[in-house]
Amino acid sequence: MAIVHEHSSIVQDVEVVDLTDEVAGPSTSTPAEATPSPTVMTEQNASCSASNNEASPPVIAEKVVFPPPCSWYKSSIAASRDDMWAYCAAGVIVLVYPPISYPSKPEELVIPPEAKKNPEEQQAAGDIGQIHGASPKVASDTSSNKRWPRFELVGPQLEKYNAISFCQSSWDYLPVANAPLVSGCERGVVRIWNLDNKSTMIFHDSHTGNPITGLDWSPCDHSVIYAIDDKGTMSVWDVVKNTLRTMNFGKINPTCLNASPNERDIVCFGTRGGNVLIVDVTGNSGKILAKVRHEEEVVSTAWMPKGEFDLVKYFNAGAKTKLPLLASSIHSMKMPSIRVWDKMGADIGKLQVWDKDGRVRPFKMFGSAGWARDPNSGKLLMISTGRRGEVYAWSNDIVPTLLHNAHTHNAIFAIVQCGDIVWSLAYEPVIVGYNLRTMEVECVIPTFKGICVLSPSPVDSSRLAIGGTDSVIRVLKCVSGYPNEGDGCNRAPILTHRLKGKVTAMAWHPTRDNFIGFGTDEGVLGVYELKENNRFATQFERRVNGTVYTVMFGPSVYTEGYVRPSRETAEPENAAGASYDDDAALPAESEGSPENKKEKDQMMLYACGGNTVYMISPSRPTNALINVSRIIEASNQNNKSSSLCTNKATEVRWAPDFSLLAVGYHDGRIELYTPPNLKVVCWIKCHLRAVQFLTWRPFDFKSGQESETRWLASASNDGTTRLYNLGTLYNELKANASDPVIEKEPLMLISSEATLQGHGVRVISCAWSPFNKNLLVTVAYDCTAIIWNIEDGSHVARYMNHLHRLVACCFHPTDPYKVISVSDEQSCDFSVHVWDYRAHPFRRSAPKKILGCRPVQAVKATNETIRATEEVQQVVSIQHVGAGKVVASGSTKKTTKPKSLLPLTSNSLINSKCSITEELTYLADKKPVKGGSAAQAWQDPDHPSVYLGVLGSAENCVEMLKVERRGHDAKKQFDHSVILSGWMGDSKWIEKAIKNRQVTESMIIMASPFSQKLYLEAVSVFAEQLVDSEEYVRASMYFLLVGKLDTAVKVLVDHALFREAVSLLKANQPDNKELLHEVLVKWAYRAINDGNYELATKIYFSSGEYSNALAVIEKRALPYAFHAGCYISSKLGDDKKLEMFGTKFVLDAITTGAYNECFNLIEDHPTLKWLTSIVKVHECLTGFSKYAKSIKTEKDFDMWRMILANLIDEIRGYMGEVEGKDLDLDITKICTNILVSIPQSEADAHQIITKNLSLMMIGIHDHESAIAKAVEIIKLADAWFEKKQIPLYFSVVMMTDFVVTEFKYSSVDELPENVTSAKRNAILLLKNSLNLIDDEAAINAEEEESGHPSGEEGATQTNGDSTVAVEDEPATPST
């Protein structure tokens, strides 16, 4: 037995983050279409702002969380005070702080300190449940319209919490400072919790591991805590005196416990057998005062507090009735009721639980009951439940009053009162709060236990569907202000019944606001129709073979090349029996029938799971699944991708107008298809790992609006989110829609418009804002959510309050500034957070370590000492011992003498019991010696007739061998027996060994002389034995010995010995190309699974599988892989792949200055000659920048014009070689292969500048386009290089100015202001940085020589790190 106490210090034994709400100050409001700047103000600034302005800006809403669901079938899981209440949610305790709390009485009582030592005086001062000093955590803001409580988590652990209780004392007079909560768990530990730091203050473990089933902090004596476990052991713990008593009442299976509010040491508890025991726990053994009985399991008991209860007049209460009264309720299978007893167990009355229709009839119900106080009249109310989840109140009549019917299930586990509100916890995942003062439902709070998917409705913008790990779909009505404010928080969510498996995917019908498709982790597909009193979803018969990642509604697709297997020969495509539907994949010639047209117009449910895309008609739930991946393969045989990737689809998403189907694959590839035949029109290869999520921007597809952009966002396991503008592709498809005969080669994209990098780990989901077209939110496994502004690629906000990995997100359906992010954590964190992104500006942080549940530890002490000592966690070092032999260092191998095959007679031959004369006589006469018959002699190995057989005749020797063989058989040494049998010419022992699979190498040698058949059979069996003993190389040798080469190769391949298999095959059958190819393919697959892509590439290339080698090398985003990809593409003759790899190699190489390697690559592959301008321009920029660093004098500074002119001449030389259409082709290739337009880094900015300069120099003759690109270059240079890299900034600006003027795109007078201004700034910046300009006079002199006076209005100078713009003026021509 151990008691734990702590007086001065607090030890936090589990890492729990304080999830208090973050309240931000006022912020400037911005329109929905503008990108809001997240501004957070302190309280002081907010007050100043409010005083200086008549109308203060709106206050940013605080974070709102949804709590986890309560534990089931226990009434002691909830407890309350007037300022807070709490409940158990499996392995965590949830604290609930209502936003408004009214005191039970209007007056405030002050208790003197000495009253703490006298429980009777303290009880006389006020009633139970009245709070005499408000908790510092509660703010009674009666002017606020907020109804949503604040939730906090306490003590996450592996074991479940079974019971909790609060101390009803004033916060200032708690027996343990700041610790009014006590809990009991499955491990039998009773803990008192400090609510300031969420740590354990004191605990005891006297229940020795037995689960706690009942717990109560005495309302009469606030220093005593009672607890009882499932073995009937009760503990009485005085936390002030530090004493602990235990007593056992036998195997009674208690279910609940309550302490009397009037008398100390009077306790009652109910049992599973239907008994209610009222016990006096004074002393060491306890005394049972009364034992009353129900017919069924008692689930809750409650003592009546002090106060007036009008219904007593209907009871059988008389003068002998001993108060207080006790109410008990049962888990009924027949007729639920509530019984009322007095202190001595007398039956006072019975309250029958009513039906919703006001009738009393038998039904099943888990009925809990409790007491509440009417805040209007101050009288007591009896609160109970009804048949269909109703909550009733008995006040002054035997007919109860219906409070609410917000619950839909009759299993209501706990009812508590906190302030004016009565809270009820039920089997369904909601918590209902009913306000007794206003007589209306205050709020209905959905609870979540791990969320997997969010899906906003495209039709009804306020509806949000949520699916999670508890197999329930919830549909919330997210009206304005939900859930923190407004009337939406009192609306009950729509719930389905529990489905088969976790809900991992959901999608709304595009035109129906009450139809949802879903998928689970068990491969189940189905639909749910939202209508009144409908909780049952339709689950389809056929399943996907694996977890369903995505579901989506879309039009039916088909192909002419599709051939459906016949009913007689068709087999299911997977273990779940998926096959092809009869009417879904229709040939083109049968489109005309009315049934087919109806099928074609109907929306199909698409699902991605098991690496395959399927579809099924929602109106035909019994039909087989249609394999859409097969349709894609059949329709794109000419453009078939690598066989390694086609079957590994991970994501599918239709465009909102159903003009394009986007499919993401495991290798990071995205392909776009056009309905109805799913012809591939675009091939995107930017991600390095699996595509997790795809989403189209809804703003681009709004009806009645013409948009030139079609943005697609993709999230991937490579830690990035990429953006693609597919507006050009969309417009081409729209233009060619009237002529379906036109078929073009698929567009291949190897670059994205922007790459959003900020998470560092796999990005799971992303979502566009429905209010601001430039905002995108992403969530990842680093426990954070980031909001991006895609207009410039900047970070807007970052939310870091989750403790577990995030799996889904979306913007609030009706609030433009709120975001909903969810995690799949089930106990250690709130699953759903609703937060205002203005209160969470972006900040960089290392990825957060994911917290998991672990046992709660605390501090320990003994009864003798109050001093707290820290509990030391014992760490046990486990040593794993391998199966191999261990040889001590320095030891030498000991040689042993070989064992004899004749052990029985060998010793007798040397040390016999007979004399040598007798032995010689036997050898001479061949007669038995005296002492026994010949029969007995041959049974005794020590007899001379046996051991001398080796020296006797051949017959005697054979008989001796038989005796030895029998000895080996007795010791189960079959190997020796077979050898002796072979010596004697007996093969039956070898046959027996073959039958028993006990063949040895010696048996194989002995089998050879008997017959070829016996020899081959023995070798085969021995080889199989070697396989079983994991000696695969030796086994292959023996298979080869009997001519089974295929089997030998198969053994090696099946156990990943590919090098040995290939060597064996080439050494013995070099012409067996088919088997060699099969082995190489399996070797390559194994290398891919092991992540050794380089080896797989070599294997495929050696076997002539160039396409597969190319697909594998794509997975490596390294320069050597790009270079190898170019070589393989040229061997394959794939110009598109050659362009892709060549572009990637060049863009990567120029960043490191490897220009010679780029030119060598272009020389080896002439089709990449269009990259020459990119390389030369970049070389010009960087070379010019390096030269600028070496400038030391004015003369050096004047040399830049000559160097720049020489570099430009090199590019002009290339332009002289390529003219006309070839130049136009170069421009097209640059535009289609280098798509980066939103810079996320200096490398991106450099790439954009290089691209635009190359386009200007190659041949953009349009005046406006050239000037626009020059302006874009200057803006990028200002943003990325001006302050950090002055020589590079100087190089970019001067080269841009030189190109514009030298190529005659415009006259000098027509140059835009920012180009001329940037030119002057660049010169001043460079000179100033090199200390070539010492003072203002030198600057003015320099400007006067250049013809740019600095004294005009707006002129500025540059000093040190300060950069000032000069008023624009026509630039002087270059000399």
UniProtKB/TrEMBL annotation:
The keyword Transcription regulation does not apply. Residues 23-54, 118-143, 563-601, 1337-1375 are annotated as: Disordered. Residues 948-1152 form the Gem-associated protein 5 TPR domain. WD repeats lie at residues 756-798. Pfam families: ANAPC4_WD40, TPR_GEMI5, WD40. Keywords: Repeat, WD repeat. GO terms for biological process: spliceosomal snRNP assembly. One of its GO terms (molecular function) is mRNA 3'-UTR binding. Residues 646-697 form the Anaphase-promoting complex subunit 4-like WD40 domain. Residues 24-54 have a biased composition (Low complexity). SUPFAM superfamilies: WD40 repeat-like. One of its GO terms (cellular component) is SMN complex. Residues 1366-1375 have a biased composition (Acidic residues). This is Gem-associated protein 5.
